[in-house]
Design brief:
The complex is a heterodimer of chains A (about 300) and B (about 425). With about 300 residues, chain A is mainly alpha-helical. Chain A has helices at about 1-5, 20-45, 65-70, 80-115, 120-130, 135-140, 145, 150-160, 175-200, 200-210, 215-225, 230-245, 245-250, 260-270, 275-295, 300-304; strands spanning about 50, 55. In chain A, about 70% of the residues lie in helices and about 0% in strands. In chain A, helix 4 (about 80-115) packs antiparallel against helix 12, helix 9 packs antiparallel against helix 12 and helix 10 packs antiparallel against helix 11 (about 215-225). The longest helix of chain A is centred in the N-terminal third of the chain and has 34 residues, at about 80-115. The radius of gyration of chain A is 24 Å and the shape is globular. Chain B is about 40% helix and about 20% strand. In chain B, helix 11 (about 240-255) runs parallel beside helix 19 (about 415-430) and helix 12 (about 265-275) crosses helix 13 (about 285-295). The longest helix of chain B is centred in the middle third of the chain and has 16 residues, at about 240-255. Chain B is globular and about 65 Å long. At the A-B interface, helix 4 and helix 14 of A face helix 5, helix 6, strand 12 and helix 19 of B.
Chain lengths: ~300, ~425
């Protein structure tokens, strides 16, 4: 971004923009170009190719994009598959974002302002990371025997005579998907929010309380604005992960819930690479728009 | 490369020489090549990279083969769809492929497979007639879909086309095959089930599941549609767009009414769904039923009046394979058809391609239970020793002839495959 917007001044004329600085940036630029920009360019290119059962046919066609939105103009049939899938993916992103934000903010607040000793802070922080010592999939699958029709939760509730028949919506439902996501990704909210809370000058809070602000007023008018960077960074993590996910939605949703990631995965497994590429490009555009919107709220580079 | 380097490096030579002498004494020629004689690369042991689904890749088979021949099998386990994907996109990443016949329509036109010379396969003429002519016990079975007889012969070794009449070159040498049907939990259903239509019976609302591999799932769905009397397909394995629409519409309506508890994509998922009681009736694979049973849970691989949906897998060779690796691959295929592996697979509930040799490696009572549909005269055990059936039990679906003779259609790749996958996504999203 900054490279393209730099005015065309000679590099050495700007303070700090010496040749050495360019060299320092070079390794990362190379890695970035090789492993991100090149593949991305290829994906965009392939998304305009044609294909048959077993090969890609280089060329230029809008066919893939057209077929993704096939039937979307016809309102009588209800939403088309693509829009329905985006709706469901966005819905999960929003719900998971909201819940992880509330939990993440609360936990970070507790760690940053209520735990006094830094040793205790570190200990509790490490405690938060314990679930991350096992793999993603295992953490997910461990919910299944708990929430199942004959699972622990249902058995307990039935044992306590609270319910007559097992609760069906605990597993393979929107509920279980959101639950797993929150379990998996709240940490991505806690870390950046905690980080920016720790940078808040404690005297500001004293000043707020000296000026007669209530606890809520301090929270809303001092802490939240000053934690904004962490909130935005955490939000970007959570939203981008959920938007692209297909494993969690697959496992916890009983493979019955649509997500864009899942559609892309099915298409690649049937060698429909151009279609999958077109889908990926659209998904990328949507995610970039969300991130662009979020970064309007805060200048991350300035705040860091 | 590294061998040559080690030989040139003086510091390593004495040690390598010592190793070589010791191993010479032991008589294992394989290690000899390491270090000492870089020129004798021909003696290097062969490692075959075996690409396939986890289902057929049994550790015991690889171990037995290595013990018999010294050739090592290195399993590369991926899903059914990924086997095809790798065969098309990365044909040099394996030395032996184990794939299903229906995938051939995608793989063969790429020229990535080489025809297997049946003159080099000892038991080639003993391969069951189900593959070569589509007959079981002299009777033709259903050939809707990609029946193996349609794609088993190639016009030549390097041909990208299927031959219409038998030739010397086979696309795949059959390994395992079976006829799939619905799996049920008899203890939870408590009444006889005899039709594919039961999968969408509202009685089992929220307790059914269907396979989420589109090209196979759609065939199960088609069996259901026919059983419900909604439509009779000219060829379930090659639907028109209209027929696909109809099939998917039926599935979507059922899904919206909450018929399905889940969709499953891999073996273990189907076992867990059934064993945990989340699902009481679902499309299922025979070894998965066996797996549920070995947990001590009642589960039937239920024969149905409309017949079975069959599948078959076989070994293929990548076009670039040559030299000793090619010889090793032929050796493996010959070994595989020679009986030990066949008996092993039969005991898992699959069927082997050459029945005669498998029979010679099985006990008479085992053969009677697995292949002739007779009651077991003693406990039937799986290859790893779990009891699968008590004495007196009869195999679901009866004898080989009644099961394989009851094939209604085969797993297939349709001409309208792309459209079908798109519509299947619609079903998942509905």
């Amino acid at each position: 971004m900054s490279m393209t917007t730099t005015p065309s001044l000679p590099a050495a004329a700007v303070p700090g923009r010496t040749i050495a600085a360019w060299w320092q940036a070079a390794p990362f630029t190379l890695v970035f170009a090789l492993f991100f920009l090149t593949p991305l360019t290829l994906i965009v290119m392939v998304s305009f190719w044609d294909f048959n059962e077993y090969e890609l046919l280089p060329g230029f066609t809008f066919k893939n994009y057209v077929s993704i939105f096939a039937g979307c103009g016809d309102a009588s049939e209800g939403l088309c598959v693509t829009l329905k899938t985006y709706y469901s993916t966005l819905k999960f992103s929003f719900l998971v974002w909201l819940i992880t934000l509330v939990i993440g903010f609360t936990v970070a607040y507790f760690l940053a302002f209520h735990v006094r000793s830094s040793g205790m802070q570190t200990l509790l922080f490490v405690l938060c990371t314990i679930p991350f010592w096992t793999s993603n999939v295992i953490r997910m699958i461990s919910w299944v025997p708990l929430l199942g029709r004959n699972g622990l939760v249902n058995q307990t509730l039935m044992g306590m005579n609270l319910i007559e028949t097992p609760i069906e919506w605990l597993l393979f439902s929107d509920f279980s998907v959101v639950l797993a996501f929150v379990h998996l990704y709240t940490m991505f909210m806690i870390v950046p929010i905690f980080n920016s809370m720790m940078r808040i000058d404690r005297s500001l809070i004293e000043a707020a309380s000296d000026s007669g602000a209530s606890g809520w007023q301090t929270l809303w008018n001092v802490i939240v604005p000053l934690s904004r960077t962490g909130i935005i960074i955490g939000s970007i993590f959570v939203i981008t992960i959920v938007m692209g996910d297909f494993v969690t939605i697959g496992v916890m949703g009983g493979q019955q819930i649509a997500s864009i990631g899942k559609i892309i995965q099915v298409q690649t497994s049937y060698l429909q690479f151009p279609l999958a590429a077109a889908n990926a490009v659209i998904l990328l555009a949507v995610v970039l728009m969300i991130i662009w919107g979020l970064t309007r709220l805060v200048d991350i580079r300035k705040e860091l | 490369m590294s061998d040559a380097f080690r030989a040139d490096s003086p510091a390593v030579v004495p040690e390598a020489a010592g190793v070589a002498r010791r191993s010479l004494l032991k008589g294992t020629a394989g290690i000899l090549a390491a270090g000492m004689f870089p020129a004798v690369h021909a003696q290097e042991k062969i490692v075959l990279r075996y690409l396939g689904t986890a289902v057929n890749q049994d550790k015991a088979i690889a171990e037995k083969f290595k013990a018999d021949t010294g050739i090592e099998i290195q399993y590369v386990a991926v899903t059914t769809d990924d086997v095809t994907k790798r065969a098309v996109t990365a044909p040099n990443s394996f030395d032996l492929i184990d794939t299903e016949y229906f995938s051939l329509k995608k793989i063969v036109p790429t020229g990535n497979l080489k025809g297997i010379d049946t003159k080099r396969i000892k038991n080639a003429d003993k391969i069951t007639t189900l593959f070569t002519t589509g007959m079981v016990a002299g009777k033709a079975v259903g050939d809707q879909g990609t029946a193996p007889k349609k794609v088993i012969y190639l016009e030549g070794e390097k041909s990208k086309k299927f031959a219409t009449a038998p030739t010397q070159f086979m696309s795949l040498i059959p390994t395992t095959y079976n006829a799939d049907t619905l799996g049920i939990r008899p203890d939870l259903i408590k009444r006889p089930v005899n039709s594919w239509a039961e999968l969408l019976n509202p009685e089992f609302k929220g307790k059914t599941a269907i396979l989420n591999i589109p090209s196979i799932g759609i065939m199960d769905a088609a069996m259901v549609v026919e059983a419900m009397g909604i439509y009779k397909y000219p060829d379930k394995g090659n639907m028109t767009k209209k027929e696909i629409d109809l099939t998917i519409k039926t599935l979507i309506e059922a899904k919206k009414q909450g018929q399905f508890r889940a969709l499953w994509k891999d073996f273990n998922e189907s076992v867990n769904l059934m064993a945990s009681g989340e699902v009481v009736i679902q499309s299922m694979w025979s070894p998965a039923v066996t797996a549920v049973r070995t947990k001590g849970i009642a589960c039937n691989f239920q024969p149905l009046k409309e017949g079975y949906r069959a599948w078959a897998a076989g070994f293929g060779l990548p076009a670039t394979l040559s030299g000793r690796k090619l010889d090793g691959a032929y050796e493996f295929i010959n070994w595989f058809l020679d009986g030990w592996a066949g008996a092993y697979l039969n005991r898992q509930g699959y069927y082997s391609a050459v029945l005669e040799t498998a029979k010679s490696k099985m006990e008479a009572y085992e053969w009677a239970y697995w292949m002739e549909g007779k009651p077991a005269t003693q406990d039937i055990k799986s290859p790893n020793g779990d009891v699968l059936a008590k004495a007196g039990a009869v195999r679901d679906g009866g004898s080989y002839e009644s099961r394989m003779g009851g094939i209604a259609c085969w797993n297939a790749l349709m001409d309208e495959n792309n459209y079908m996958v798109q519509k299947w996504n619609e079903f998942v999203a509905a």
